[in-house]
TrEMBL record:
The keyword Transmembrane helix applies. Gene3D superfamilies: 1.10.287.70. The chain crosses the membrane at residues 42-63, 83-101, 107-128. This is Potassium channel domain-containing protein. Keywords: Membrane, Transmembrane, Transmembrane helix. Residues 62-131 form the Potassium channel domain.
Length: 137
């Protein structure tokens, strides 16, 4: 359990740190120009950031499984795409439950969902700022 918490905390810090760096780049772009092209570029940065976070956690699930922290229940053996798919569904808090972790990997899944919720909120703030940039008061 301690190892699962250490892994989850490490992934949380890596995810939040990378997300904040990418969002900061988005804010910098927004300060330079608020054209439609810049706004679309910022939207792509946000998408890239969330996909990166999902990839971090997918790797974490693979590492956790290799360390014997748990496994996954689903049909067949897990592939890299299965780890990424589960992570992407989990980080968005959608949780389809066609693949689900067992044992201590459930801790990692819970921390990923909390991380995703927090990061989506940060992204929403950037989108709100972006949508209101250039409006007259």
């Amino acid at each position: 359990m301690i190892l699962a918490l250490i892994l989850a905390t490490s992934l949380f810090l890596l995810s939040v740190g990378s997300h904040l760096v990418i969002l900061n780049a988005g804010h910098t772009l927004l300060e330079q120009n608020c054209s439609l092209l810049h706004k679309l570029g910022i939207a792509l940065l946000v998408l890239f950031s969330h996909l990166t976070v999902a990839a971090f956690f997918a790797a974490g699930f693979w590492i956790g499984e290799e360390l014997g922290l748990g496994g996954f229940r689903q049909a067949g053996a897990m592939t890299a795409m299965d780890y990424f798919y589960f992570s992407l569904i989990n980080v968005t808090t959608l949780g389809l439950a066609d693949i689900f972790p067992t044992d201590h990997l459930r801790v990692l899944a819970g921390v990923e969902a909390l991380t995703g919720f927090a990061l989506i909120s940060c992204s929403a703030q950037l989108f709100w700022t972006m949508m209101h940039k250039g409006e007259k008061a």
